[in-house]
Each structure stands twice: as structure tokens, then as C-alpha cells.
């Protein structure tokens, strides 16, 4: 499953950084199954002071107004990680849907403390593709790669969001701008896939939401996991330009956590009537796009 030259020894536990409760399992379930005793640190696992109006995602997951969503999702996470021989660490920051996103500095500080407390030496973090919470988590981790150079850092491709090759290329370029190089470190085989399937089923609320109309499903999570080795240019004895100290790179680190600008396709979808957008979002197919393109252009001109 793993290249012995790039991955930790079989006996070593690892730390996986997960933006939300299910991301670590969806993206690294087979990896976790291969390293019993590993720890999953969920960055955005906090309960908001007030849930307020039920969010669209929580509604799609089957929750109702008044439900303690975070408590339910923590219970799912506990069960899923136990099935893989891993244990959770939950930070108290809230995810974006609750409107209380942490600053980059707050998130980086919380992750640094959690990683140190685990005493783990090998860390896998999301590459930070597309989703704002994933990007923010990756941006926070990117600052730690510089400040905690004694650890071995890897990234995993975010399941579901990795389907866009454009997003992957853009992310690698963005990491390069903050002096971090990513080199492919291997992918999973079939080892641990059965355990991963079982663990995914222990997130029933998220399966319900992912498979709701207009959402992409979770089939991509059952494809081979892919990993990258992360290093600063100093790790590789490649001189960094004088301007590229941490203070000078601060704006670039913040940019890592910003949402991607809309693509041409997303701008085109935004011009469609709401029912059509709902039908096409998520598992959008090129053939369906071409069928509707002429009609959409006529609609936009009217």
C-alpha cells in the first residue's frame, strides 16, 4: 500500500488532520487501517453557541431544528474511527456553515498544540481542495510545516473535491508560493478497503447528505487514496529567496485559506434558473452541459 522509502515504519502511529468529522476517513481510511493506534485531529469540531436556523447541509443530513448536530456527529466519528483502530481529538473551532470560522492564526495554534500533545511525528493533512474549510485547514498546516520542521509532513488529496484536476494544479502552485514543495508519495491498494467501507457507513448523516439530490455522493472516497510528501525548500537545501521569510509570506499564507474564484463553468451555472442549478450541481456531466448550453445562452440574453 505504501512506499517504504516515503512512509513511516509499520509500527509507527500517525496523526491525520481532518477539517470536518468525516474527511479523515473519506480521504485516509485505508491509511488509518494500516496504522492502528493513529489519531485523527478534527480541526472544526466545535459546537456553536447557538445553532440558529438549520443549515442546508444539516437539513440534507436529516437533522431537525433543535438537534445537537455536533454531538451526533461526534458520536458518528467516535464509532467510525474505532472501526479503524484510531481515536479522535476534537478541536473546539466551528465549521463555516455555523458562521464562526477561526482565524488562520487561531487554527494554526490549536492544531500545533493538538499535534504536540499527541506526540506524533508523522502528520497527514488535507491538500485543501475547493472547500473553504479544507483550504483554511491546509493554510494553517502550511504555517506549521515551517514552524515545526522536526515533524514529517504529508498531504492527502481531499476525497470528492480532488475530482478537479484544475483545483489540484492550482493548489500545488499556491503551496509553492509559500515555499512548500509537494512530491507524490504513493497511493493505496485494496488493503484496508473493507475496513474503510465499514467506517464510512458509520457516518449515516453524512452519507445521507452526500447522496442527496444535487450532491456528488461518496463514490470517489472508495477510489485509491493519494498522498504527497511536503517539505519546505530549506528541508531540501534549496535556498529560499531573501524576501521569503515567514513575515513576508504572511499574505500568501492567508491567500491559501481564501475561497477559489468561480470557474467559468460555475459562472455559467450561476446564470441558470434555480431548479436547473440544483439538478446540475454536484455530479455535473459534460454531456448534459453541452445539451443545455445553447438554451442557457438564450436564457441569459433575455
SSE order and pairing:
Blueprint: E1 15-18, H1 23-34, E2 39-42, H2 56-60, H3 69-83, E3 87-90, H4 104-118, E4 122-126, H5 132-147, E5 152-156, H6 165-177, E6 180-187, H7 193-200, H8 204-210, E7 226-232, H9 246-256, H10 264-270, H11 274-280, H12 286-301
Parallel strand pairs: 1-2, 1-4, 2-3, 4-5
Antiparallel strand pairs: 5-7, 6-7
* Count of DSSP H/I helices: 12
Please state the average pLDDT score: 83
Per DSSP E runs of 2 or more residues, the count of β-strands stands at 7
Secondary-structure element pattern, one letter each: EHEHHEHEHEHEHHEHHHH
Helix content: 40-55%
Strand arrangement in the largest pleated sheet = 3-2-1-4-5-7-6
- Helix-strand category: alpha/beta
Give a short account of the largest sheet. Answer: 7 strands, mixed
What is the CA-atom radius of gyration, in angstroms?
A: 20 Å
Low-confidence stretches: 1-5, 238-248, 282-302
| Cα shape | globular
Percent in strands: 5-15%
Distance between the termini: 55 Å
Amino acid at each position: 500500500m505504501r512506499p517504504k522509502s516515503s512512509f513511516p515504519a509499520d509500527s509507527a502511529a500517525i496523526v491525520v488532520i481532518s477539517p470536518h468529522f468525516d474527511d479523515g476517513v473519506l480521504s485516509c481510511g485505508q491509511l488509518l487501517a494500516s496504522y492502528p493506534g493513529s489519531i485523527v485531529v478534527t480541526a472544526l469540531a466545535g459546537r456553536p453557541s447557538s445553532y440558529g436556523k438549520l443549515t442546508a447541509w444539516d437539513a440534507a443530513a436529516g437533522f431537525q431544528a433543535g438537534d445537537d448536530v455536533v454531538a451526533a456527529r461526534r458520536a458518528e466519528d467516535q464509532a467510525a474511527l474505532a472501526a479503524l483502530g484510531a481515536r479522535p481529538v476534537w478541536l473546539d473551532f466551528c465549521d463555516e456553515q455555523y458562521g464562526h470560522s477561526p482565524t488562520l492564526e487561531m487554527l494554526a495554534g490549536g492544531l500545533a498544540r493538538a499535534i504536540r500533545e499527541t506526540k506524533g511525528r508523522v502528520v497527514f493533512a488535507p491538500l485543501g481542495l475547493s472547500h473553504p474549510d479544507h483550504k483554511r485547514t491546509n493554510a494553517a498546516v502550511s504555517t506549521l510545516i515551517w514552524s515545526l520542521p522536526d515533524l514529517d509532513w504529508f498531504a492527502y488529496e481531499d476525497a470528492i473535491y480532488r475530482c478537479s484536476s484544475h483545483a489540484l494544479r492550482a493548489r500545488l502552485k499556491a503551496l509553492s508560493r509559500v515555499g512548500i514543495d509537494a512530491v507524490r508519495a504513493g497511493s493505496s491498494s485494496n488493503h484496508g478497503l473493507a475496513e474503510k467501507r465499514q467506517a464510512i457507513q458509520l457516518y449515516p448523516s453524512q452519507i445521507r447528505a452526500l447522496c442527496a439530490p444535487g450532491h456528488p455522493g461518496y463514490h470517489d472516497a472508495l477510489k485509491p487514496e493519494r498522498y504527497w510528501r511536503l517539505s519546505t525548500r530549506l528541508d531540501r537545501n534549496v535556498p529560499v529567496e531573501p524576501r521569503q521569510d515567514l513575515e513576508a509570506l504572511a499574505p500568501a499564507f492567508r491567500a491559501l485559506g481564501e475561497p477559489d474564484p468561480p470557474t467559468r463553468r460555475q459562472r455559467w451555472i450561476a446564470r441558470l434558473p434555480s431548479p436547473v442549478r440544483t439538478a446540475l450541481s454536484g455530479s455535473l456531466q459534460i454531456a448534459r452541459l453541452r445539451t443545455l448550453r445553447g438554451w442557457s445562452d438564450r436564457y441569459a440574453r433575455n
